[in-house]
Write a structure and sequence with these properties.
It is a single chain. With 204 residues, the protein is mainly α. It has one domain: 2-Layer Sandwich (Protein Binding, DinI Protein, Chain A). It contains four helices and three strands; from the N terminus they run E-E-H-H-H-E-H. A three-stranded parallel β-sheet has the order 1-3-2. Helix 2 packs antiparallel against helix 3.
């Protein structure tokens, strides 16, 4: 039986979908200012007779082909959704400008109609922002689960081969010190990359 302690990691897309207020423009999503992914350490011989090992799961997610592909999918969806939100906001701003610049020469009925349209556009924008964020969160969760499903068998395979009792997850604040030779992250990355990609699960 494999025992993994504090196995946690994240897939980073960038800033969340902007939640603009009624009178403010949601800022365009800039490229994510991310810290460079940690590089795999130079291989150190695995200590003979050791019964435990550890992995840096964030390193595996950042460095493996599947982790990179998952992050790219997440970033692609975020880019598409952000562009859709920006288009809605541009339409809202156009209506606001029309009311501000031409309201004085419009009939009361036309002004009232335009104001109602602006209110509708504001509501639609807020709903679209929330829907976009939910869609992004759902994909992130799906990708994390897919990655975990691919990772666990590899960890179990290595655990059996090395006769390990436990594999710990470092990088989460739970490992104070360890022999670097116990770090099997590089081996996990190689095996993940060598494995045949799993077919994406069909949505019910």
């Amino acid at each position: 039986m494999i025992v993994i302690v504090a196995l946690g990691f994240v897939l980073v897309a960038g800033p969340a979908i902007a939640q603009g207020t009624a009178g403010q423009q949601p800022p365009a999503t800039p490229p994510a200012a991310q810290a460079p992914a940690p590089k795999p350490e130079a291989p150190v011989p695995f200590p003979e007779g050791a019964k435990v090992a550890y992995v840096i799961v964030q390193l595996i997610a950042d460095s493996s082909s599947q982790g990179k592909a998952a992050t790219a999918r997440l970033q692609g969806l975020e880019k598409k959704l952000t562009e859709q939100i920006q288009e809605r906001f541009k339409a809202l701003e156009a209506s606001r400008t029309k009311l501000q610049q031409g309201g004085s020469v419009m009939s009361p009925q036309a002004v009232s109609q335009l104001q109602k349209e602006i209110e509708k556009q504001e509501r639609d924008l807020q709903f679209a922002q929330q829907d976009a964020q939910n869609e992004l969160n759902e994909l992130r969760q799906d990708l994390l689960e897919e990655f975990q499903e691919r990772l666990n068998p590899v960890l179990e395979e290595i655990r059996r081969e090395k006769g390990l009792h436990m594999i710990f997850s470092a990088g989460d604040g739970g490992l104070a010190a360890a022999d670097p030779g116990l770090n099997i992250s590089g081996e996990v990355i190689k095996r993940l990359d060598a494995a045949k990609p799993a077919a994406p699960a069909e949505k019910k």
